[in-house]
Amino acid sequence: MSQYSIAVLAGDGIGPEVMREANKVLDAVEKKFNVTLNRTAYPVGGYAIDTEGEALPSKTLLGCEQADAILFGSIGGPKWDTLPLEQRPERAALLTLRSHFDLFSNLRPARIYPGLESLSPLREDIAKSGVDVLVVRELTSGIYFGQPKGREGEGEEEFAYDTMRYSKREIRRIAIAAFEAAQKRRGKVTSVDKANVLVTSRLWREIAEEVSKDYPDVELDHIYIDNATMQIMKNPAQFDVMLCSNLFGDIVSDECAMMTGSMGLLPSASMNEEGFGLYEPAGGSAPDIAGQGIANPIAQILSAAMMLRFSMNLGDAADAIEKAVVATLEAGVLTGELLPSDKRSQAASTSQVGDEIVKQL
Amino acid sequence: MSQYSIAVLAGDGIGPEVMREANKVLDAVEKKFNVTLNRTAYPVGGYAIDTEGEALPSKTLLGCEQADAILFGSIGGPKWDTLPLEQRPERAALLTLRSHFDLFSNLRPARIYPGLESLSPLREDIAKSGVDVLVVRELTSGIYFGQPKGREGEGEEEFAYDTMRYSKREIRRIAIAAFEAAQKRRGKVTSVDKANVLVTSRLWREIAEEVSKDYPDVELDHIYIDNATMQIMKNPAQFDVMLCSNLFGDIVSDECAMMTGSMGLLPSASMNEEGFGLYEPAGGSAPDIAGQGIANPIAQILSAAMMLRFSMNLGDAADAIEKAVVATLEAGVLTGELLPSDKRSQAASTSQVGDEIVKQL
Ligand SMILES: CC(C)[C@H](C(=O)O)[C@@H](O)C(=O)O
Ligand SMILES: CC(C)[C@H](C(=O)O)[C@@H](O)C(=O)O
């Protein structure tokens, strides 16, 4: 019987309660698919600051190193927002994990589920046009990590600077990830850049073109980031895979997530070249609704499915979870934010949604 | 009688035909307000490349230097897209003009006009919530112009880099522009940054806070760029003035423009500290519809109104044009893109819209 080990980092806010449901689903997968998914919980984020003095304690990092994958909840909240930037949960834990494990390949799917179109902030005809985008974001380079970064000078001429930087190698590996994904989808990559202004973007475009030669079955387009934010609003169904640098991917993936109107359904994967990955919901820690049992666990559960698919090669189990989620949505077992305001009293709780998904499995 | 001189750079695509209507309106303003608006036309963009060999001929630059303001049409098109980047219309003409005249303060208003809500790609309730945003974008610094920029190294480790850079002085002057604008509007500035990642953004936030102390009647908020692109979709009515760096302003202003669904109505102003400015429509040269007499001239006409207000201190004339535009929209004299597809046969032509605005004046 195959056996895997998972570092479970639930974190802050709604993290722990949605992670409980993901664990239920993973228990069910163990039985149904005859695998062992050993899970060990580690502190991270604000909770780790409060209990261990830092957002990413060394035992947590060590636990992640020994695991086959990290299942991540969410971190941060107003309580830790006044800390110096470098100690805050987002930077000290999330950016450090990304960089430590070289998790360069970030997959963020965003789709509008049939029947849930009215949640989208977009006009009905646009929301119903068949929106299903995968943002492939480079996650360990670009202006997030480029050196030098700093402050210099005196008085009013004092200035701050950041460096946007990409090597051919870094662009090539994320471009390959995008083309591979597009082959399994609708065969189209749209590369997002600002090649009319940035030297980095020109190299980005050059390498995207080079890589595309190895994928004759995939179509490649280029779009400027400013136009991309417009087209996502006007006609999101035109996009299949969007290939983005770190900063542009941050922007594009959030706009795509919001466009669906159902952030609580969106998972994400951040992987390295060895298939090791961190899997987390697209939404944040939502401190305003934490602890009330009303948060949607689906993004966390679909993140677990991505983990099974990409880090454990358990595509069947991942498929089964994804089908169970669709069945649960179709059965109308929905948390409140997915319901029109006059139907909120019929909302299912976090654990009811988890239970239904297990049942559908 | 006061007298002003205007360099008229109509450019490519729909530029010349919409400029014709702006000129009609300025003729009417001369009579009604007893001013002289001397206009001289100069070649720019692709047209200048074809006729003079470069996108910004020296006689054009000289003409701009001698004028009180530049009224700009639009430039670029597929014909010139294969030129080396540095020679292309957008960079060689537009970015050069911005930097040559230190046009650091870019104002891009975006509003949804009552009655035109159905054009917006946003859901009806959002489009009807009273959307009226002014994006104040820094236009002569940041990653567009920061040095160094380049390429280095060999093989797969060859890398490209750009520098994002802001001095306190540069941030302060654009922040002041945003607060001044907010005082005349609804008293709220939302500063857009990525202060959880960028050193430049931290300085940006610091100076925005400093400047806000001089404007106790204006409220200041900060928002991350990724969240900004979400909030513009979800609840654009929350924004009054959005204060942005060059790159983030490029993205935010285009998303705001698209959100209105009526790009052909949106003007923009780019000004320096002496009140000299370049005024241009938010949309592009639209080569696909050029020469057919169907382009909407309103963005060009409202750009002329901004010019009268900001570079010539003719607020009354600007008000009058803006009122005439609203009256024209209310009278239903609309170009095709503002009409539902089944009513396009009743569309007014470019010159009919111009004539109606003159009449309403
Ligand atoms: C928390 C922040 C640093 C992070 C990012 O910008 O990458 C977040 O916005 C994300 O997209 O995962
Ligand atoms: C043409 C391009 C260089 C320009 C920019 O990025 O500033 C345009 O997108 C704009 O917003 O005016």
Automatic annotation (TrEMBL), chains A, B:
Residues 5-357 form the Isopropylmalate dehydrogenase-like domain. The record marks Y144, K194 as: Important for catalysis. The keyword Glycosyltransferase does not apply. It is found in: Cytoplasm. Keywords: Amino-acid biosynthesis, Branched-chain amino acid biosynthesis, Cytoplasm, Leucine biosynthesis, Magnesium, Manganese, Metal-binding, NAD, Oxidoreductase. Pathway: Amino-acid biosynthesis; L-leucine biosynthesis; L-leucine from 3-methyl-2-oxobutanoate: step 3/4. It catalyses: (2R,3S)-3-isopropylmalate + NAD(+) = 4-methyl-2-oxopentanoate + CO2 + NADH. Mg(2+) binds at D226, D250, D254. The keyword Zinc does not apply. SMART domains: Iso_dh. Its cofactor is Mn(2+); Mg(2+). Binds 1 Mg(2+) or Mn(2+) ion per subunit. It holds the Pfam family Iso_dh. NAD(+) binds at residues 77-90, 284-296. Substrate binds at R98, R108, R137, D226. Its EC number is 1.1.1.85. Catalyzes the oxidation of 3-carboxy-2-hydroxy-4-methylpentanoate (3-isopropylmalate) to 3-carboxy-4-methyl-2-oxopentanoate. The product decarboxylates to 4-methyl-2 oxopentanoate. Belongs to the isocitrate and isopropylmalate dehydrogenases family. LeuB type 1 subfamily. Homodimer. NCBIfam families: leuB. This is 3-isopropylmalate dehydrogenase. It comes from Alteromonas gracilis.
